[in-house]
C-alpha cells in the first residue's frame, strides 16, 4: 500500500470517529436533560463547544408546553449542534486530498451521504424518544386494557435515555434492524 493511500485511509477513519462520537455525545447529553426543553451542565458545555447560543427560557418553556415533550434538551438546540457537527465534518472531508481510485471515492461519497442525513435522521430518532407517543384510538384502548397486566414504563426510563454505540466509530446504534454501522460501514457482528 502506498503511503498516500494509507494516509487517506487513516484520515477517513479519524473523520468517521469524529462524526460518530460527536453525534453520540450530543445525543447522550440531550437525552440526559431531565426537564423538558431544559438544560444541564453537560448540555450547556456542548452548546459552548459547538458555538451555539441557548434558546431563551420563555420560548423553551412554550415549546415544551405545546409539544408535551417528556424530557430532554430542546430539539431545536440539538438540531443546531448536529448541523454544526455535520458542517465541520463536511469541511474536513472537502479539505482532504485523495486519489480517485474507485475504492476511496466510494467511501468518501458514502461519508458525504451520511453527513447530509445526520441532522434530519438523528432528530427523527430523538423526537421518538422524548415526545409523547401518539396512539390511535384502537392502540389506546389496547394499551389501557393491558395496563393491569403490564406495568407502564416511566417516561424517563433507562431504555429511552440509553444509546448503544458502534464499537469502531462510536456512532449511535438506534435502528434495531441495522446490521451494519451507517457511519463507518462496519458490520456489528465483527466488532
Ligand atoms: Zn461505526
Report on the architecture of this protein.
- There is one protein chain.
- By secondary structure, the protein is mainly alpha-helical.
- It is built from seven helices and two strands, in the order H-H-H-H-H-H-H-E-E.
- It has helices at 3-31, 41-49, 57-67, 75-95, 103-130, 137-146, 158-161, and strands spanning 164-165, 172-173.
- Helix 1 packs antiparallel against helix 4 (75-95) and helix 1 runs parallel beside helix 5.
- The longest helix has 29 residues, at 3-31.
- Zinc ion is lined by residues 20, 166, 168-169, 171, 181, 183-184, 186.
What is the 3D form?
Answer: globular
| Molecules bound to protein | zinc ion
Instruction: Count helical runs.
Output: 7
What is the number of strand segments? 2
Mean pLDDT across every amino acid position: 87
Overall number of structural domains: 1
- Give, in order, the helices and strands: HHHHHHHEE
* Structural class by helix and strand composition: mainly alpha
Largest sheet, strands/sense/barrel: 2 strands, antiparallel
- Tell me the strand order in the biggest sheet: 1-2
What proportion strand? under 5%
Quote the distance from N terminus to C terminus. 24 Å
| DSSP helix fraction | 55-70%
- Contiguous uncertain segments of 5+ residues: none
Radius of gyration: 19 Å
